[in-house]
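Tokens help. Consider this.
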Amino acid sequence: MQRRQLIVGLCLAAMASMPISVLAQETYPDRPVKITVGFSAGSSTDAAARVVAAKMSQILGQSVVVENRPGASSSLAARAIAATPPDGYNLFIASVANAINASAQGPASFDVAKNFAPIGMLGSVPNLLVAHPSLGVDTLPELISLGKGKGSQLSFASSGNGTAPHMAGLLFAKSAGIELLHVPYKGSSAAMADLLAGRVSLMFAPASTVLPHIRSGKLKAIASTGLKRTNSAPDLPTISELGLKDFESSVWLGLVAPLGTPAKVQATLVSAVQTALDSPEVKSQFAAQGIEVVKAGPKEFGQYIRSETDKWGKVIEASGVKLD
């Protein structure tokens, strides 16, 4: 009995001598975890976050809740979460918007690649390049030829300056060597309405949004914008395979944590994310939302964020557009 009491006493003494931060890592998570999304509820980013959070709750045995904090194309939320204690209880959904913002928002720019620790990529929403039938083109070479002939008369719609569809148009124009007239709208719904009415010629839009219009003949699918064909339209070639090598523009998203988050906590989160993405429930729910699962661990995801930030910075600089 005395020996047992001695061992217990030594253990308690050892625990008492441990820094509180170390003890917290050993019991993580012992309270709800919050994931902040920088966009409104109902967006693709929000939908993906909620699906993954629900599965992570089961895996971690602790509530994982999603909070929406829209503003400045997700920059407000990014800044706020980066300033929280790095203990694993406040996480952020980084997306292509943040990579664009790092160059697009001038003095207000905030670089996610420098201010967060990557946990893992979650998925991507494939985009399609679509045209109004009145344009009279069926293929990408036909579109490029027309663009070189008409110049700025060829227009494309987007959901606003500095948005992912706007950047896709700039990248396409640069890669194809043509001029496009950008027509920004206040939101994707207004942009789509004018595209369907034929008031603009082109748009880069999520496959889930435009596929019904393609099937009805109201829009013409030209190409998809990923490096590989999308599961939503497997017969549609990519812009890259049609000649504009390495062209890629997708709405990607992933989970990040404030810099300084302990390695053990990060490892727990990485494992939970990877397990969640492997689950049939997450795959099914992603597919229903038009989101493709993309598994990438911390190193690969960190490199991807950096490459995307650099890519869009170069596109903005080359185009000469002012976005701030």
User: Anything to note?
Assistant: The chain has a mean pLDDT of 91. The longest helix spans residues 298-319. The domain at 127-224 is CATH 3.40.190.10 (D-Maltodextrin-Binding Protein; domain 2). The first strand starts at residue 33 and ends at 37.
